[in-house]
Amino acid sequence: MSAAVVIGSADLLPALVSRAGLDDETLTFSDSEPLEALQAINEHQPRLVVLERLFAATSRGAALINRLKSDPSLAETEIRVLSHAGDYSRVIARPAAVGVGAATGAAKTAKPPEPGPVAPAAPGPPAAVDAAGRPLDWHGTRRSPRFRARPGLEIQLDGDPVSVIDMSVIGAQVLSPGMVRPGQRVRVTITREGGNPPIRFRGVIAWARFELPRRAGDPGPHYRVGIEFIDADKTLLERFCQDNKAVER
């Protein structure tokens, strides 16, 4: 179990780690990497997740908090909103339906319950929603089902091939050998088999992270990139996703 995960603006992360009194076991993510942060949280089950106050106030920050609050497997993880400067610190209260043994836990710690609305009893945890009220999938900040791509699948960004990791009708995660930057507009081209014309549309880089190979067989230095599609034909993309998703074993 990792000690903590800290999420905030890249230039504020050292101050956040220091303010929270954390050590070298801390995993840090910039506010442009909420998906990576969530994946790390699910994998490592940290005792503490710290979100910088400004990030927590954004739609992505709110969606991430909702996702963490509604996950029963993270019932023992404290979610704290912290300012990089000043004394602001707030522990996020969880819905009663999510806590494991909430009544017993309160008795053991001899702490009064956190103020906040109590969710009605339900068969499962409440579904997280983003700022627009749309249901989120298991990654918390996605608005559409995403499919793992078959090995070797490529699309083009501004004419350059990139490897597809996963994809939906509104976005994709790819590995790019060339440098890209968040906010960069790109032309996306998807080649189809069977003589069908390619699918072309515009996209924007939502986040990008440079990675080095960690083990033998890994791709060379590359950027792991999240793309948001702007004006794509969702019907064509749905068919493409179904035709090119990885085979489950």
Give a short synopsis of this structure.
The protein is α+β, with helices and mostly antiparallel strands and 249 residues long. It has helices at 13-19, 34-44, 53-56, 59-69, 102-109, 234-244; strands at residues 4-8, 27-30, 48-52, 78-82, 89-91, 147-148, 154-157, 160-167, 171-176, 185-190, 199-211, 222-229.
Write structural notes for this entry:
Helix content is 21%, strand content 28%. It has a six-stranded antiparallel barrel. The model is unreliable at 97-113 and 118-142 (pLDDT under 50). It folds into two domains: 4-109, Rossmann fold; 148-244, Thrombin, subunit H, CATH 2.40.10.220. It is built from six helices and twelve strands. It has 249 residues and is α+β, with helices and mostly antiparallel strands. A hairpin with a 2-residue loop joins strand 7 and strand 8. The two termini are 29 Å apart. The longest helix has 11 residues, at 34-44. The protein is elongated and about 60 Å long.
What's the topology here?
Elements: E1 4-8, H1 13-19, E2 27-30, H2 34-44, E3 48-52, H3 53-56, H4 59-69, E4 78-82, E5 89-91, H5 102-109, E6 147-148, E7 154-157, E8 160-167, E9 171-176, E10 185-190, E11 199-211, E12 222-229, H6 234-244
Parallel strand pairs: 1-2, 1-3, 3-4
Antiparallel strand pairs: 4-5, 6-8, 7-8, 7-10, 8-9, 9-12, 10-11, 11-12
